[in-house]
Amino acid sequence: xxxxxxxxxxxWAVTGSGHYLxxxxxxxxxxxxxxxxYSRAGEEVVRMYGYDPKSIVPExxxxxxxxxxxxxxxxxxxxxxxxxVVAPATSNTVAKMVLGLSDTLVTNIYAQAxxxxxxxxVLACDTIAEVDxxxxxxxxxxxxxxxxxxxxxxxxxxEATTVVESADELFATLKQRLAEVG
Length: 182
Prior knowledge:
Blueprint: E1 9-14, H1 21-30, E2 34-38, H2 40-48, E3 62-64, H3 74-77, E4 81-89, H4 91-99, H5 105-115, E5 120-124, E6 131-134, E7 139-142, H6 146-155, E8 161-164, H7 167-181
Parallel strand pairs: 1-2, 1-4, 2-3, 4-5, 5-8
Antiparallel strand pairs: 6-7
Helix pairs in contact: 4-6
């Protein structure tokens, strides 16, 4: 395990969605003291969209979903992070969060962040009944299922979790949080 940082950092988890991916990566690149956590699909999608997963946070640490026990959760236990951002968050990830499943790196750090009273900000991809979203080679129209929209609404009721519905709202919420921990 790496040395403990001098002050708590921001943990940013990327899941396997192209929706809001470009906007999220733009925000991440502007931040200091941020570490990236990739789900397996998140790392795969980042590459599909033409980004190098290692170059996004040249000064930060990168964690990948390659171990069954998600060893990086220990970093939350020792106080390395003041906030967790999950953005973009797929309907699959949101459903697992709502159901309390911790079977991926991202869902495990979300659960452990909550248990350690580290606030989470989640940019859910499925928030409206119809959306145009970028695929790697074109725009696609999607109609999130009722269950996906219901999970997003349910996640909004969870303690220490702020669900945002756009990249602009994510940026504003994150800016406010960073000012709080300042």
